[in-house]
Amino acid sequence: MNVLSASALGRISRTFDCNHNLLPREVEEMERLGIPADALAGPSPVRADYVVFDNLGFEFECHTEVGKDGTRAFLFPVTDGHGVARDVVAWSPQLGKLATWLGRAWALGEDTINAPRLSDHGALPVHRTPVGWLRARQRGICLVRPQAAAHYLEAAGPLLAEDAEHGVELKRLLTRPAPRILVSVSTFKKAS
Fold first, then answer.
1. Of 29, 74, 89, 141, whose Cβ has the fewest other Cβ atoms within 10 Å?
2. Is the separation of the CB atoms in 33 and 78 below 8 Å?
3. Which of 14, 97, 85 is CA-nearest to residue 51?
4. So what's the pLDDT on residue 1?
5. Rounded distance between C-alpha atoms, residue 39 and residue 33, angstroms
């Protein structure tokens, strides 16, 4: 587990806060997708800026080499259970990309997995996409890094998939393979 200093955590929050509020056309785009405007304001505000995606995640365009053109992406702060920023997630609907800045976050809404669940089934809603998560007003989670999420969701209680197909997909994504088990050759010699 990465332990971050208070100054590093503050830097994450300040970096997120320096990004732009959504443009009116971006708010309209979200509303056309069925996302209510108030879902963009919180509990975690949605911002936007230009980012460069790579195999590891993304970098803010202003932090990259001159000449690397970024893509306008929606940005989400990912916080711990105390509201302290741990990472930033970028989502580009046009490119179909969802990635972390620092590789620490595993889901949008991950800070809520241990929050009380007051529904009849007590399940944690898991959304396929950021659109679903935002339509639900940021209730539940949207996986960003499923392999990492498997560890955290192991004891999170029941998960609520969007439909049966999504349930099968979640089971596949969150099932961790058993470790390879070897038996020492000397054990076989003693047994014979």
1. 29
2. no
3. 97
4. 47
5. 12
